[in-house]
Structure formats: structure tokens, C-alpha cells
Predict the 3D structure of the following.
Amino acid sequence: MRMLRRLFGKDGGHHPDYFLLATLFLLVVAGLAILTSASSDLGKVKFNDSYYYLKHQLVSGFLVGGLGFLIAAYVPYKSYKSLAFLFLILNLVLLVLVFTPLGHTAGGASRWIDAGPVTFQPAELLKLSFILYVAAFFSDTRRNRAKNIRSGLLPFLLVAGTMTVLLILQPATSTVMILLAAGLVILFLSGVSWKHLGMIMGGGVVLLGLLIATTSYRLQRIVSYFDHSSDTQGANYQVNQSMIALGSGGVFGLGYGRSTVKVSRLPAVVDDSIFAVVGQELGFVGTGSLVALFAILVARLFWLARGRRAPQLRRAGGGECVYCDV
């Protein structure tokens, strides 16, 4: 109860941002409704239960996520700085565990850990722990790590390299690109020089290019991205079927629950192709509204983040302000 009182502004806690909470609530409700429709036929065929995937998501997704939300609301955000490195190390250990008997392989990729009733991807947790670590590491203004190669950039490159190797072995190349791009943004905001940023980006592009050129399936994905008309029954099958489903929805869609491609044509319909189901059932209006909700969420988070200012100190005599370490 104390956690709930803190969350809703009681017991000395701050009032939450109700606009953000309302946006999150709408996205959760929309997500559960979309999942229910997209997975109903598949659940009936595989498990003789049209609501199998909804029940699974409520238990392993909604409840676990809700608990994490309450914990995050209760713990002061500044305390994450001291825990950031520990979170990252634990996450790297989880990345190693995907290659042990605890790991779960599907579609030729070893990206999951099977923990009984819950199966999860450590790479998804890494999207949080890596960004927390980099932000905390370079926020130490007293050591000025952004300007120091030995105590700043080299440790970052070591961590990023270890993470990259573990993800490439899964393989999860797109996740690597997302995380490294986020890391570079933090480096830029921390004040790393353009010269060092250019060297890091140039090295990353060269290594990525060599990786793509030496692995046929990665090269095929790049080629397929630029030429959707080739290999329509192979590499481009899912993309083309998804585009057909999106286009067939028109402006207002065929109606909720009336998608015609959920089992017969769209592979991975409950994850990779679920947006195509939204497009066919709810049309441009539905997909546009969903994208708008995510845009509102991102904009609100940026607005709230800008409202958080680091404490400042003035030099003796009222000189220039310098930021403290927070």
C-alpha cells in the first residue's frame, strides 16, 4: 500500500504525470485488444483455445510489467546510477546463458532463456541496462570521461564490443545496430569530440559491412529490403504479404477481428506481422491512431526529461555555473 500511496502522490511522494499514465493505459489496452484479434485463429489451431496468447500475455507480460512499473515508480531514479554497472553485468551473464541448456532456440536463432512459465530475450533487457550504464558512466562530470580516451572511450568500447560479440553470435544484428546508435547519441550529448565520434562510427560501419558481406543471409536481407519484388515466395514473402494486408484495409479497415490473413498467409502473426493485422482490420485510421499514441508517448517523455535539471553549483564569488555530478 505504501508503494501505491507513493505512486499516486500520497505519503510524501510526488504526483505522477497523469497524461503519461493515460497514454500508457491506452497503449496497453490497445495492445491487448490487437493481440486478442491477431492470435485468436492461431490459438484455436495450435492450442484449441482462442484466448491462449491473451492469457499468456496477461500472466507473463502484463503482470510482470506492472510489477516492474510499480517498483520503478517507488525507487528514486537517481539510485539507478549506482546500480547501472551491476545491471549491465547481470544482463551480459544472461546473454551468455542463451547458449547453455537454459537457452531456447527458434528459427535458427538462440535469443531466448526458458525460465519455466516465462520465456524472455535478454537482448530486450539490454536495451535498458546498456543505455543506463552509458548514461551513468558519462554523467560523472568530475572525471570528464567524455574527453578522456583511457578512462572514458576505451571502457565504453570494451563494453560495447563485448555486448556486440554476444549479440552477433545469437544472431541479433538489428539489436546491435539499435544499441550502438543509442550509445553514440549519448556520447554526443556527453560532449565527445566529433573526431572521436567519427572514428567510432567509421570503425563500426566497416565492421558491420564486413559482417554483412561475409554472411549470405544478412546480405540477402539487405538486398531484399531494396528489392521487394524479388524472391516473393522466399525472403520477401512476409514483407509482401504484410504490405498486401496493410493495403487491403483501406481507410477504415475490414473491421475488428475480420482479418483474412492471420493464419493462412502471415507468418509470425502474433509478433513480427501483427501491425499488418491492425492495418487490415482497422485501416489507415487505426494504424495512424496507434502510431500517434506512440509519438505522443515519446514526446511526453522528452518533455518530462527536459524538466529534470541537474543540480548546479556556483563558484565562490558568484562565478559561472557548473553542473554537479548527480
Notes: Residues 310-326 have pLDDT under 50 and may be disordered. The chain has eleven helices and five strands.
